[in-house]
Amino acid sequence: AVTDHNSGGNLRAVAQAAGERELLFLPGIEVCTAEEVHILTYFPTVDAAEAMGAWCKAQLLGQRNKPQFFGAQRLMNSRDEVLGEEEALLIGALAADLGQVCSQARSLGGVPVPAHVFRSYGLMTVLGFFPPDAGFKAAEAKPGEKLPEGMLALHSSDAHSLGAIAEREHALPLTERTRGALMAFLTDPKG
What we know:
The chain is α/β, with parallel strands linked by helices. The protein contains 6 helices and 8 strands, in the order E-H-E-E-H-H-E-E-H-E-H-E-E-H. The protein is 27% helix and 17% strand. The protein starts with a strand and ends with a helix.
């Protein structure tokens, strides 16, 4: 999966590059809620993820990026060439709260998953609990971090550079190597 903060602007290019290399690609967005909780939102299609990105953009608080402070927010093509830059500041919180973000993702066929739950901007760090009505089936956590009973732990994610991507240590028991099977598993890990 690739999940930029509050944006789906690079997903189509990543999908094209992944397709050319026969890689299974899961489009998504890492959304920062009004509570400043990071939620990974995974989608069955790039179109659905881009729709979520457009919704996120409308929920941004109108701040412009200052590349000299926050870094460039580049829009790339599938050949890693810069096409432009996103001018809106993408690292901040949206006006939408946790419930609204999850509801919007699900309305587009997506699966919301709390990101790095015990670190900065994680659900447990910010709220201190998993809201029982949120309906989360999975969460991103380090091995050994305790999640609620029956919740799927996703490991080795949240890499911000290629060098931070871990070697394959964990695998998901998918029935087939397709985006549909992966989305079905994330929706109902107990199948």
